[in-house]
Amino acid sequence: MRRIGDWRALERAPTQELKALQDARLARFVREELYPFSPHYRRVFDEARVAPGAIRTVADLRRLPFTTKQDLLNAQVDPEHRLDFVLQPSPEKIRASWPLSKKLGLLLGGAAKREELRFAYTPNFVTFTTGRSSEPVAFTYTPHDLEVLGEAIARMFDVARVNALDERLINLMPFAPHLAFWAVTLGGFTTGRMVLPTGGGKVMGTDGNLRMMERAKPTVLVGVPGFVYHLVRQAREEKRDLSRVHTVVLGAEKVPPGLKTKMAECLAACGAKKVHILGTYGFTESRLAFIECPTEFDVSSGYHVQPDLSVFEVIDPKTGEVVPDGADGELVYTGISGHGTCVLRYRTGDLAVGGQTWAPCPHCGRTLPRVASELKRVSEQHALSLTKIKGTLVDLAQMGFVLSSMAEIEEWQVVISKKGDDPLELDELEVRVAPRNGLDAEALREKVKKELVAATEVAPTRVQVLSLDELVRTLGMETELKEKRFLDRRPK
Ligand SMILES: [Zn+2]
Q: How close is the Cα of 292 to the center of ligand 1, in Å?
């Protein structure tokens, strides 16, 4: 595997060495690339009166303001600033900012070297944010970035212990201009392992995915939790052979242990031996992803960060102050290895319970920093008017966590609507569940209500029991890019 030698030295290096490497990469990236080539950040540095050379360590970053989603949106809608986050080198900028030795190399290399440089900085690929609440934002990649992403995914294969030459991965991620599908596919190109992309449920349907899986005899399944569970459940139903599967990688954070257990039971019924199920964390703005290492289902290692490519700071979301190692806070991201669209101090809006730690991983022994796997999104607290008195805060993510964990439930969906579709009426919270075979509907209704109240202090207006087929259809498992877990039907 390309450059894996670096990785072997890196993954278990002493913490001080890793921190020094991260500081040095950050300083060089700011000085030689971000400040000279990014119109947006040149302005940010100048306005903050911070010289690029003043950023020598990660701790120095706090002298600079944060970047927000709004900053990205503002730039995107303004034709004059649309490309402000994209690195745009020019001969003049290089002359002004690069050290002599690097410039000399360029000069002596002649036309071939200049072409190489142009190649490394010219975008040739784009992914978009999913944009639930706002316009999708474009993130460009150059050939250099695709190499970095490929290398990062190759290292993730290693952390996941997907190492054998005959590994076969089925990529069940939805086919779309989103990071997940392409990252997994690219991982196959870089590592030389077989990665078969099915495009997910919308492209091939449940049956097409299952047939592909049985034919390819995969060792690894990669996908979003809802669709992977749907497939392995169906595979058990149809007595399909999935006996070679040893790992499931899920494109989602904090998968409930109960759901992992349910998946593992289905895979065991299809002949699989011991299966590891790993969560990942990735977002469009990072153009990278981060993975857990194999553990028992009820513990998480956290996401292993590659400190030569990325910097995470953890801040108090109210004050913006950086919090100590291991403390809860919002994740703030700075890429230190990219070309194309680059962000510095980007506020992810993800609150990590347990923040980031530099303590060696107790599960794999790697000394890489790790981000805690329990993440909460600020936007996932929804205010609903469930009573006449006032809005009730409902944590839909927590609700999903409870429902996914319940062994009695095969599938679920939460629907928010207005009583009688009247915009002036109260909100209604309906929970739809498909029970496991042979369960009593009335008892299940009671149990669902009780568990939701215990975990979220909110009782659903009603619990509707549906057949599995009905619910799979309503969720759009075969028709949507991402299944519709939470449906908001209130008139806008
Ligand atoms: Zn680990």
A: 6
